[in-house]
Amino acid sequence: MQDQINSIKEKVATLIKNAVHSKELEEIRINFLGKKGEFTTLLKSLGSISAEMRPKIGAMVNEAKAKIEKDLEKAVADLKRKELDLQFEKEKIDVTLPGRKPQIGTAHPLTIIQNEIEDIFLGLGFSIEEGPEIDTDFNTFQALNFQDDHPARDAQDTLYVNKDILFRTHTSPVQARTMQKMHPEPVRIICPGRVFRRDAIDPTHSPQFHQIEGLLVDRDVKFSDLMGILEIFAKKLFGNDRKIRLRPSFFPFTEPSAEVDVSCIFCNGKGCSFCKGSGWLEVLGSGAVHPNVLRMGGYDPEEFTGYAFGMGLERITELIYQINDIRYFFENDVRFLKQFK
Amino acid sequence: MLVSLDWLREITTIKNTDEEIIENIPQNGLEIESVCKTGIGKQNVVVGEVLSKNNHPDNKKLFIAEVDCGKFGKKQIITDLECVKVSDKVLTALDGVVLADGKTVKCADFKGVKSEGFFVSWELIGFSFKSPDPIFIEASVENGTLYDDILPFNDTLIDIELTANRGDCLGMKGIATDIKARFDADLVPFDYNYEQCNVKVEDEVEVNIETEDCFRYCGAVIKNVKIEPSPMWMQLRLVKAGIRPINNIVDITNYILYEMNQPLHAFDYDKLSSVNGKKKIIVRNALENEKLTTLDRIERDLIVSDIVIADSERGQCLAGVMGGENSEVTDKTVNVFLESAFFRPVNIRKTSRRLGLRSEASYRYEREIDRKNVDMALRRALYYFDKLKVGEISSGIVDVYPQKYEDKIIKTSTSWINGKLGTELTSIEIKNILEKLLFKVNSIDDELEITIPSARNDISIKEDIAEEVARIYGYNKIKPTYYPSKTAGVRTAEQKNTKKLHAVMMNCGLSEIKNFSFVGKSLFDKMCLPEDHYFRKSVMLQVPLTEDWAGMRNSLIPGIIRTVAFNVTRQNKNLSLFEIGNISVPSDELLPYEYKYAGIALAGNKSDKSFCENAVKYDFYDLKGCFDTIFEQFNVKVSYKAINECFFQTYQQAEIILDGKRIGCLGKLHPEIAKKFDIDVDTFIGEIDTSILFAAAVNNIIFTEIPKFPSSERDIAVVVKDDILIDSIFSVINDLNLPILQNVKVFDIYKGDKVAKGHYSVAIKLLFNKITSTLKDSEVEEATNKILEALNSKLNAVLR
């Protein structure tokens, strides 16, 4: 009986050793450990053995079964691993091949910078106002203190639809409209938008461009408050090291008026080719709203003061991204557009 | 305005260096356009007297001149200048001089004849003034004198760009007043004295002003004039200012224009008609149908707003704009009548614009000159007539002054100015600043009573005073302060929606473009649009920029096609683009209607061929999918209806309907039109009106329970007739309102031998689910059967 057990053990060990497929191991399990397997048969014949030998033989059988079970388990695991290895080898890929990229959309550079500027002013408590691109001569010029037949009108060669209606030359009519709508409540707005002028297109001129203007109307606001706002704006948009410098200027709708320079974002004021050695970049026009403009907006200039500022979005975007030709913005070459991620 | 620093230093007490002046001027609000140097430094450019002049033996165009260059000796110079005569003194560059064009003067050999120098032109010694002539020097200057020792040829010129309000700075006197205020310097008083002859001007000329458009008219008479070149010092000043020297009379008028900011006009006195032995000058508006031939020999048709200087017979000058041919000063002129006047700026502006005649005079008149300066400028001119010994000056001047200048007085206070600016200036400081600018200030305690100089027509309100104070005090000395907002800045609902739409478009893989808003006939013609197509009904410009840019777009589609074409012709053939922008539609109201539109274009391949896939082209459903995504994200339901738009390919186009309103359209660009734009890839374009979308959008999100129980799927395939649209199958199913039906998806469409002719098969996946409990098979069966029955009864659909 003991010999019989040992010979089965040996036989099984050989079979396991030679098995090359998990199916063969399953057969081994069925043939030797299954309900009709050799050990079961062997155990059934225990009855023919002496009672005193029976527990000993039984233990031997169980021990052998346990060992085979363990060996089988190990063999199955080994084989499975081998099979997986084989399968993986078949599925081997070149990880250096390029990935499959999902199509990603990009925002226009002018939109990116416009959003940044809007966010800065939203943070300063400004809201955003928009107005029509085609507006009246009244809102565009007269309400902004441009007198008829004054040389100041020459600076903005206007695209007229008829004598009263025009393609707006600046976003300032939105200021006029907002004042007419809001008075006598205080105003704190920016107005971004598209503007038009009769200009031939070249690297620095375009008959269409964008402006962002700001307007603050309240009691007791001072010129120095305007400077504070513009300084924060310059630092937040161009970096905390930036300084601003104001130069007196003239706009019909503001008095006093100022051009606002920001210390050069490339050389930080030392002087370079971008700032033509001056250390400063001209980025904004600004000033105190002319009392005539306030009056036409419905505010009493003795009670209210206003401050306004304006900038060219293309100019600022060109500075930030070092774009050297305004035409890129409206040609929409995708090789240009995809650069602004 | 070109400012010579030499001239500036002559009329002010400014002692600062060039660099200091250049650095500080912009703080006045005088923007420096450019700075340039004249002259070529200290070099051997000397006065040479021509002793003899002979023809070159071998070249008829050349002359051999013997030139006495004083201490530099006699030089032989070969020249082609015919105008140089014996005994003329001319500026001569000697051996070794480096000229402005970078070339060095060297002794040279001209066909065997030695040349030891060069007669220089203005350009060669560093002036932008173009003239082939040499520079003649007065006989009184000693031969061999270095050019820079004669007059300040070496100088710095600052080109100042003046803002439209600062007409007062168009003369040296005015700009010097502004600049000297920054440097605490003074003006040097001008000399107005001259010798007068015993003939009284009122015996020679009488002036009548018959129009309200002339506020002041002054005149003088100069007899027996000798017309000759003006002295070199005056010519040099004019050349520096960019003005061509002509002769003494013209040069004096130009000099006064530039020095005193007062245009003058000289008439040939003898060409004016006389009444009772006196010349009669009439200043009046032009008559109906009046004609006047101006100095440029062009006959001008005048209108009533033009101002004419006439004698008793006819118009002699188009006031403030251009003189008349008839009374032009010529070499033969013996007596001169000199005018100095003030005309209404708007009239001059209208006349000069209408006739396209823009002169130094009209430019100043339209910006308004100083009415108090009109007679002073004339006296100053007479001072130069005397100094230059041009002729005999009649005693006195004519001064007809019907509209007298009244002093402008502005009352304000120190506290008001400080309150506006955020400064803490004292009354004394403010007074000092204003007085530097020649304002008169009366200050009592806080109050300020300020008299404005007559030259400063840009100052009329107290805000102007605040600016004057601020700019001379220094804008940048004002300390920034911070005025907090009383409210938060937030985007409006529309702005939030636009931002969301922008994000959705980008998530669809689309890149943003910004097109020109301009559209025009040639673009529409290229799109083969019929004459009455609505795209053509745009808001048109009175004067178009070009044929292509003549009006405002009323659809984004034409511009998008233009951009697709631009890219495709530059080999960017795979495009997925979007634009959000305004369009305008003509209306019966004052202003056109303006809407914000969103457009999309897909062109070429969705994905190119790669190591694992074939190329996939964009098709109609890719574009529709983008729009569907937008509608889904804004929670609106739309329907699509086939249309027949001429610029789209037939059967591949639809309009989009939201709540019964057309919200937009989409389709495949017609291949014939694509070809006209050189677009050689399939292109799909669509647009929607965002105002309709945003109005219908549901943005308030309320959470719905997620099903906890497993869902169940059933696939069905039905055969229907060809003319049944998928949309109607969806409608039939949706109309059943089955609560457990979660989703319906078409996963296959088959047309061919296996179904009856004129029919096609649709395979549909139905997804069922229930929030409250597990679905029973019987419920799914029941719902599926209901769907099949409905499809059968409504659309004759047969289960395949």
Attribute tags:
heterodimer, A: 341 residues, alpha+beta, BirA Bifunctional Protein, domain 2, 2 domains, seven-stranded mixed sheet, three-stranded antiparallel sheet, B: alpha+beta, Phenylalanyl-tRNA Synthetase, Chain B, domain 1, OB fold (Dihydrolipoamide Acetyltransferase, E2P), Phenylalanyl-tRNA Synthetase, Chain B, domain 3, six-stranded mixed sheet
Largest interface: A-B, 84 and 88 residues
Strand-pairing-aware structural class of chain B: alpha+beta
What Rg of chain B, in angstroms, do the CA atoms define? 42 Å
Helicity range of chain A: 40-55%
Describe the structure.
The complex is a heterodimer of chains A (341) and B (800). Chain A is an alpha+beta fold. Chain A has helices at 2-18, 22-33, 38-44, 54-90, 109-123, 137-140, 172-182, 223-238, 291-296, 313-321, 328-331, 334-337, and strands at 127-128, 134-136, 159-160, 165-167, 187-196, 208-218, 244-251, 254-263, 280-289, 305-312. Chain A has two domains: 2-90; 109-337, Bira Bifunctional Protein, Domain 2 (BirA Bifunctional Protein, domain 2). Chain A has twelve helices and ten strands. With 800 residues, chain B is α+β, with helices and mostly antiparallel strands. Chain B starts with a strand and ends with a strand. The longest helix of chain B is centred in the C-terminal third of the chain and has 19 residues, at 777-795. Chains A and B meet through helix 5, strand 1, strand 2, strand 3 and strand 5 of A and helix 7, helix 10, helix 12, helix 13 and strand 27 of B.
Task: Lay out the secondary structure.
The complex is a heterodimer of chains A (341) and B (800).
Chain A: H1 2-18, H2 22-33, H3 38-44, H4 54-90, H5 109-123, E1 127-128, E2 134-136, H6 137-140, E3 159-160, E4 165-167, H7 172-182, E5 187-196, E6 208-218, H8 223-238, E7 244-251, E8 254-263, E9 280-289, H9 291-296, E10 305-312, H10 313-321, H11 328-331, H12 334-337
Parallel strand pairs in A: 1-5
Antiparallel strand pairs in A: 2-4, 3-4, 5-6, 6-10, 7-8, 8-9, 9-10
Helix pairs in contact in A: 1-2, 1-4, 2-4, 5-10
Chain B: E1 2-4, H1 5-11, H2 18-24, E2 31-38, E3 45-55, E4 63-68, E5 74-79, E6 89-94, E7 108-110, E8 113-115, E9 117-119, H3 147-150, E10 155-161, H4 172-182, E11 205-209, E12 214-223, H5 232-240, H6 248-260, E13 264-268, E14 274-275, E15 278-285, E16 291-293, E17 299-301, E18 307-310, E19 315-318, E20 322-323, E21 336-343, H7 345-355, H8 360-366, H9 374-387, E22 392-393, E23 398-400, E24 408-413, H10 414-421, H11 427-436, E25 440-444, E26 447-452, H12 462-473, H13 493-507, E27 511-512, E28 518-519, H14 521-526, E29 539-540, E30 551-552, H15 557-568, E31 575-585, E32 593-603, E33 605-607, E34 616-617, H16 620-633, E35 639-642, E36 648-658, E37 661-669, H17 671-676, E38 683-689, H18 690-696, E39 712-721, H19 726-735, E40 741-750, E41 759-768, H20 777-795, E42 798-799
Parallel strand pairs in B: 11-15, 27-31
Antiparallel strand pairs in B: 1-10, 2-10, 3-4, 3-6, 4-5, 6-9, 7-8, 12-21, 12-22, 12-23, 13-21, 14-15, 15-18, 16-17, 18-19, 19-20, 24-26, 25-26, 28-30, 29-30, 31-32, 32-38, 33-34, 35-36, 36-37, 37-38, 39-41, 39-42, 40-41
Helix pairs in contact in B: 5-6, 6-9, 7-8, 10-12, 19-20
